[in-house]
Amino acid sequence: MAAGKEAIVETELDPAAIDLGDLERSASFLLRIAQLAAYEAIFAIAPNMPLKLSEQTLLQVIEDNPDARQGAIADVLHIKWSHMTKFVRSMEMRGLVERYVPPNDRRSVLLRLTEEGRAQLREIRPRMRKLDAEAMSMLTAQEHRQLVGLLRKVAGRPPLAEDPPAPARAE
Fold first, then answer.
1. 63-104 pLDDT, tens per residue?
2. Nearest-angstrom CA–CA distance, 157 and 116
3. Which of 20, 51, 61, 159 lies in disulfide reach of 55, CB 3.0 to 4.6 Å?
């Protein structure tokens, strides 16, 4: 070895041992890492989903809000209007969504699902609930409710009504 040169020793470092310093207390950083971990878990569980998560999200929002303005949905989902137009057009071309302009407001574009969009969503919704539960399986039911409540608050969404009481067990 040349004088003044030290040997570089590569060691395997356990990812949990990597010090993130102040980032360990950064809610926004941890939120981003948690989002990535959740998506990785979903993709590991179901690698061959028929629709992208973003497409599934849009179908669900349109079904739950038929005839909603395209711009309002874009705002809630934090999608730029120009991107939303392309996104909706793509789904429209695949026969999942239809756009229409109401006669009383020619500036608005309203969205609704097609029969094919509803059929795909009927198939996808239960699977997505299951995938979400599996991806968050490290949480207890109480922790899951708490996390959802906190995330809704951070996202600026109103609180959900309390869960109904669990049904009494038959004895």
1. 999 999 999 999 999 999 999 999 999 999 999 999 999 888
2. 30
3. 51
